[in-house]
Amino acid sequence: MTAPVATPFSTQIREASHQQHTEAENSSFMSDLLGGGLGVEAFRLYTEQLWFVYRALEAPTAQLAADPVAGPFVRPELARVAELERDLDHMHGSAAWRDEVRPLPATAAYAERITETATGWTGGYVAHHYTRYLGDLSGGQVIRSIAEKTWGFEPKGDGVRFYVFEGIGNPAAFKREYRTLLDAVPGDDAERLRIVEECKRAFSLNSAVFQDLGAATSR
Q: Are 157 and 67 in contact (CB under 8 A)?
């Protein structure tokens, strides 16, 4: 009798967080935004909030590069902050927005939690890294396509460069490699369960941002 094959950690994460992921994807804000019910100003506000989140994700990468848990996930081809800034320069018409934009309360809480994990628990940081970047490489491409059609951005041009990973020639292969890295994350079952729970928390934090965005755009 053969022993049962253990479920890969990447599969555990995806299956355990499916409900939270679906709730985030189906938020009323995203449904309205992608369904054409909101204008480009709402898309710009959403992009501004992403800037705060990704600054928190990418600020500690130099320190995390040698970390045995988070280090393998530090990939320069994933970096998004410079692309977000280019998009926002385009949407605002100048770089003055950097001194003017502010995070919504849920965005500030999200960014703070990412910073907490990066400095105190890198397994948790990996959970946030996974929920953001693999989402960008998957569903993010749908957002880019709709934004180009709805608001007239040039295909893969300024305004939607956040969604364009020029350093990744084969996204499907990259995602497979990423999942292999997840499967190799060190730690016992208890630690992996903690990471799964943090992944769920990441999706919930993202949903809270969508709630704040919905409130801000319905005024």
A: no
Residue spans of beta strands (DSSP E) within 124-172:
none
Q: Hey, what CATH topology would domain 17-217 get?
A: Heme Oxygenase; Chain A (1.20.910)
For residue range 69-86, what is the model confidence (pLDDT) as tens digits? 999 999 999 999 999 999
Provide mean pLDDT across the span 184-199.
94
- Per-residue pLDDT, 15: 87
Contact 30/207 with Cβ under 8 angstroms?
Answer: no
- Give pTM, 2 decimals: 0.94
Residue-range domain boundaries for the chain: 17-217
Name the packing angle between helices 122-137 and 171-183 (round to 10°): 160
Q: Nearest Cα to 146, choosing from 42, 36, 32? A: 36
Task: Please check whether residue 160 is in contact with residue 87, taking contact to mean a CB–CB distance below 8 angstroms.
Answer: yes
8 A C-beta contact, residue 17 and residue 199: yes
